[in-house]
Amino acid sequence: MFETYTETLEDLKSHSHLRALKDYGDKDEKYIYFKGQKLLNLSSNNYLGLADNRAVTKEFLESAGADYSFGSASARLLTGSLPVYKELENLITDLYKSGGTLLFNSGYHANVGINSTLAGKGDVIFSDKLNHASIIDGMRLSEGKFFRYPHNDMGALEKLLVRERNNFNNAIIVSESVFSMDGDIADIRRLVELKNKYNCILVLDEAHAFGVFGETGLGVTETLGLTGDVDLIVGTFGKAIGSMGAFATGRKVLIDYLINKARSFIFSTALPPVTIAFSKWIIENKLPETFERRQKMLELGKKLGSDSHIIPVIIGENDRTVEVCDILFKDGYFTLPIRPPTVPAGTSRIRLSLTTEIQEKDLEKLCSVIGSINKTIKI
Ligand code: PMP
Fold first, then answer.
1. Of ligand 1's atoms, which has the minimum distance to the CA of residue 179?
2. Which residues contact 22 (CB under 8 A, 6 or more apart)?
3. Co-location of 279 and 334 in the same domain
4. What's the pLDDT tens digit per position in 164-184?
5. Buried b (16+ CB within 10 A) or exposed e, 72-95
6. pTM score above 0.85
7. How many CB atoms lie within 10 A of CB 143?
8. Which of 78, 125, 154, 162 gives 146 a disulfide partner, CB atoms 3.0 to 4.6 angstroms apart?
């Protein structure tokens, strides 16, 4: 019986697809320690250097004391809803000036819950082809139908809407704002126009933009002045905020519906109160002072050819991508090969993610290494 599993694993290995956990020594806000080496961490979502940051952790614990426990022991709808959860939800609602907010245990829970729930029988979802796995899994669980449009292709989306919209009751358009593996940005203005023209609900996942883009860090919609035009915005606390969890904020009716119907919310123990308190503390005390450092990081991203702080270096073949990571390792850089199924076949890549801790001079050697390996690889 176990042979099929072994065969699959061997097949993955022979195609350089096998995933395995690594034994890291330690991490801080800038470096990761692995195989006895100190490496510049270019593979984290720790965009503001707030995770793995001992000074920040110490400051929070000193201010919080023993007020918040490490286990909620219950789902929110049972006995797991202490005041701190509502306080964080109210804070997000105030920041976005939205109708309401619901916390989820992770971005994965949020996207699975939202996409499986908002599209019921007779409904439809239109989803960008490069949307995150959690959005895809949510759509697969939905009783509605879904269509995936070519990445960022607004013309193709409109064609689909013309052809399909009237065959369904409710229609949802879902997109990331900053795309996690490509670092490019959705045409949010056009998405808003299309959702209005074709009477759809627009859901925008700002996982990689919350805490990074916008004057107060609310995301790309804040940069564009479109925060109020999106029906539901998803943000995560596990990336720039350095904590864990996620939120959906937007129209009150959608929030109330999710509380009643989203199974990933209803049937899971709430995050520890201490984690919720930490997210709230970071947003109130640390995020407001990051504007200049965030701008500098985004400028460096632009210099390296990206629209954001995420820079894809597309190499193509799996083996070659792993080789390049090994070369960079020897030069003190920690990068990870990103391979299918995370990205489409033939587009294996190194995903460089900048943080506010990383300076331009830290990357000089990396640029010359990548440039000399292959002149066609541009960063
Ligand atoms: N959305 C996007 C776009 C993501 O990239 C990720 C995680 N990489 C998630 C959602 C899931 O968030 P979390 O890690 O909090 O589950």
1. 3
2. 34
3. no
4. 999 999 999 999 999 999 999
5. beebbeeebbbebbeebbebbbeb
6. yes
7. 11
8. 125
